[in-house]
Design a protein that fits this description.
The chain is an alpha/beta fold. Helices cover 40% and strands 18% of the residues. The chain has a 7-stranded parallel sheet with strand order 3-2-1-4-5-6-11, sandwiched between helices. It has a 3-stranded mixed sheet with strand order 12-9-14. It has a two-stranded parallel ribbon with strand order 7-10. The structure holds UDP-4-deoxy-4-formamido-beta-L-arabinopyranose. The site of UDP-4-deoxy-4-formamido-beta-L-arabinopyranose has 21 residues, from helix 7 and strand 8.
Length: 337
């Protein structure tokens, strides 16, 4: 089996991707310092796939420790998730974001460029489009000024990858620009488990409906959108995990057309905050208690994906819709894990 290093593999998207990698016949090796995840996810992943994946509790910025992993295992591919990802937190603590999100990629690339085979899938984000004038956004849509340090770190990381791949022909990388991942694995054993008060919409919403949090605050209802609330392209985390496996297979089979490619990974459909609330109530037969509050600094008004390139070049498309996402998010919340 091919060894695939998954940095941040105990996190929300990481854990779902580890399951998908195993099911596709790969051998995922997890690296995670659990700053935003829990070692409990290792047992949960094992409950789904059977074997317990190899796991190193280390920080990707620790070059010596990371190098040891590459010396110990023949690594055929790397999926790099390990990064901070809260738009709001990055506004209040930018240095934490620049230090971690840039250092982790730089450390990884310095080691990978010494390997005979270096194939990398990078966790990028739609937030780097900023408040794009054209919607849906294409991979060629000019990037607006980033709206948050988080988004800026993703822009800079992609620039680092562009320059490094140009100078290192044997480094082959694909950036997957995620839109908004939500939902949970059908088993209800893994899902989004933010530490502390969730900054993202859906985990806060499900915790509010479960009575763990107070009412949901809708951040802004006076935007230039049909119902005044922000629009995002919500994608099921399982569809997103599958995109990583397909992109990895593309690199391993040397099907990539250049040694740095990028793809929008979304559904191609935008949904407003109020639409999410209404759909959640409809599919789950519950009431969401919310108030209309002030705008949140760092938010873009609307962003959703043109997914033509991922559909036609990568050969990937979503299978699950917003109702599936919100139903699985509620099932995960009810599992009480
Ligand atoms: C969505 C909408 C909020 C909380 C996320 C990830 C980021 C990236 C992009 C992958 C916004 C509103 C939220 C709340 C609200 N993903 N909201 N009340 O900011 O789009 O970013 O997707 O890389 O990593 O964080 O997601 O869920 O925080 O916000 O009204 O309590 O919900 O204003 O309009 P965001 P989010």
């Amino acid at each position: 089996m091919k060894n695939i290093l998954v940095t941040g593999g105990l996190g929300y998207i990481g854990s779902h991707t580890v399951v998908a990698l195993h099911e596709a016949g790969f051998n995922p090796i997890i690296i995670d310092n659990c700053c935003n995840s829990s070692p409990l996810f290792l047992e949960r992943i094992a409950k789904i796939i059977g074997p317990t994946p190899l796991y190193y509790n280390l920080d990707v910025c620790d070059s010596k420790a990371l190098n040891e992993v590459f010396k110990t295992h023949e690594i055929q591919g790397v999926i790099h998730f390990a990064a901070y990802k809260s738009v709001g937190e990055s506004v209040s603590d930018p240095l934490k974001y620049y230090r971690n999100n840039l250092d982790s990629l730089l450390t990884l690339l310095e080691i990978m460029k010494k390997q005979t085979s270096a194939k990398l899938i990078f966790s990028s984000s739609c937030s780097l489009y900023g408040d794009a004038k054209e919607q849906p956004v294409k991979e060629t849509t000019p990037l607006e000024k980033s709206q948050s340090p988080y988004a800026h770190t993703k822009q800079v990381c992609e620039e680092i990858l562009t320059a490094t791949c140009l100078s290192e022909p044997k480094l082959n990388a694909i950036s997957l620009r995620y839109f908004n991942p939500i939902g949970a694995h059908k088993s209800g054993i893994i899902g989004e488990a933010p530490i502390g008060i969730p900054s993202n919409l859906i985990p806060f919403l499900t915790q509010s409906v479960a009575g763990i949090r107070g009412p949901l605050t809708v951040y802004g209802s006076d935007y230039d959108t049909p119902d005044g609330t922000c629009i995002r392209d919500y994608i099921h985390v399982v569809d997103l995990a599958d995109a990583h496996v397909i992109a990895l297979k593309r690199l391993i089979a040397n099907l990539n057309e250049s040694n740095y490619e990028l793809f929008n990974i979304g559904t191609g459909k935008g949904s407003s905050v109020l639409e999410c609330i209404r759909t959640f109530e409809e599919v789950n037969g519950v009431k969401v208690n919310y108030t209309l509050g002030q705008r949140r600094e760092g938010d873009v008004v609307k962003v959703w994906a043109d997914t033509t390139k991922a559909n036609e070049v990568l050969g990937w498309k979503t299978k699950l819709d917003l109702k599936d996402m919100l139903r699985s998010a509620w099932q995960w919340q009810l599992s009480g894990i």
